[in-house]
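Protocol step 6 of 9: fold each sequence in the batch and record its structure tokens directly after the sequence line. For illustration, a two-sequence batch is reproduced in full.

Sequence one:
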Amino acid sequence: MTFTHIGLDPIEMNAVEVDGKRFYLTPEGNKYPSITTVISNNPKKQAALARWRARVGAEQAQRKSITSSTRGTRYHKITEDYLNNILDLNNYKDKPLPLYMFKQSQGTLDRINNIYLQEAALYSDKLEIAGRVDCIAEFDGVLSIIDFKTSDKIKKEEYLYDYYVQECAYALCLKERYDIQVKQLVTIVAIEGDQPQVSVQPVRKEYLNSLLEYIQAYRNKYDKKSGG
């Protein structure tokens, strides 16, 4: 399949690490925390992560986190090449698992077309957050924020919720920066040894409210530590 690209002008932003947190420097010189950092630092997520680490042990948790991150990065790269019409499978022969997961999800990826942006920087001056969206394109003919994830098993719906919040943030940034309104949020989770898990959600006010709560919780924590 050959994908069509609409081609919006990309935003140039550099990322910096401050006390283990990722920030982006906007073209205007503002420094905003990444959307992923803000969401991952919400109290509920931190508590759930702490319980998981306690259950599996610190060493196993660290090993699994590294494995998951590496798998996700490689899968993203293969998918990006595919959507950019430049995929050469010979480049990924030494990455059998991500390549297999890509092939399992290829049929789902073929439902994407008319691509506006990929791996693109976005930010909001209103919310003072920034990040990089995986893909903005039509999915089944509907303009969407599309997020690619990987997992070793099917995820429970409750574990997908923060993905929707993250995608909602990108939708708001897109509207603010480009005056383009998406219709839906699409989460594609490539699963080891199974068909991909696909979730299509409308842009709900509920996700915005959760995003605002996460931003406020992050600011409260950050301002306290910085003495602000």
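Sequence two, same batch, same settings:
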Amino acid sequence: MYSDKRVSLIIPCYNEERGLDIVLNNKPVFIDELIVIDNDSSDRTSEIARKYGAKVVHLKEKGYGLACQVGLRHASGEIIIIMDADNSYPILETKEFLAHMEREQCDFITGCRFPLIDKHAMPFIKRVSNYFISWLIRKCFHIQLTDSQTGMFVLKRHLLEAVIPSNCGMGFTQEIKLKAWLNPNIRTAELHINYQKRIGKSKYRPIRDGAKTLWGIFIFLSAYYKRQ
């Protein structure tokens, strides 16, 4: 627990046995509930997760966002952390997230990878794609969000009804942040993190995933301005 609040950690996984082992070996003591969504892995992902006491939920249908949605349905904590399993996000820095959340009375905090401390941690094409998409989101929605695509964030459970995305793919992370940042009743923050080179093979495909991300922005933008 953290300040008498139950904390849930959700990790969506697809063939992440190596990274997951490192992440969970460093799991902070304040995490009460560990939920690993195994998105039909063919390696030892589930076995590694159970070794650390995780509740493993098997999901046959592929989709990062879908895995996160399933994880959120299983989480019982008052504070929920979502992060990747590839050890690119520093799990120990979640303590600073929770401290900032308590200190500043925030509802939603997301990690910001930029500027990169290790320039080699992210492939050049992915770096350019992230810069462009985050810039586009700032221009379209007039919000200060440096890194819209990061997969590490913390939110309070009571927000779920207001921010849960419909996007079942990679666009899940940008949609949940947009819903939070555009809601005047939600107090948000962005904290810099020491992004590290991932362990294992990347599932990100620049052309396909980039196109889907841009299409997701267009759909969300259209719906947003219709409501204004």
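Proceed to step 7 once all outputs are recorded. Observation for sequence two: The beta strands are 7-13, 33-38, 55-58, 79-82, 108-112, 153-156, 188-192.
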